[in-house]
Amino acid sequence: MKASVLAVLARAAPRAPKGVRRVSAGGVFEAGMLDEAALLAVVDTLPAGDFELGCHPGEGTPHVPEDPAWRYGWQAELAALTSARVKARLHERGIELHSYGTLFSAT
How many C-alpha atoms does 43 have within 13 Å on its Cβ side? Predict the structure, then answer.
């Protein structure tokens, strides 16, 4: 159900005005389950260009007041994002990590 809602919202979203840089996004459907294996799979399918990966690494017990039944894998995402295997794969593919600040200051 959440995937359908996100797909509809994405199609209905307004287009960026001229001069505003668009960034492709991914990881949305893996949200909360982006462990090392899933992150490596995403990295292996990244297209050329700028890409935003949706993830929420953290520590402790996840608590989402809006949806108490939702269990988010913060610890697994933190472990994946700091994994030596993931760092090596990013290096192999020539992928550099940036913040939005560095992406948009370069335009």
Answer: 23
Q: Are 57 and 30 in contact (CB under 8 A)?
A: no
Domain housing 72: 34-46+55-61+68-76+87-99
Beta bridge partners of 51: 24
Contact criterion met (CB below 8 Å) for 82 and 36: no
- Tokens representing 40 are 């490596």
User: Looking at residue 91, what is its pLDDT?
Assistant: 95
Whole-angstrom distance, CA of residue 46 vs CA of residue 93: 10
**Residue 95 pLDDT > 80, yes or no?**
yes
pTM of the prediction? 0.65
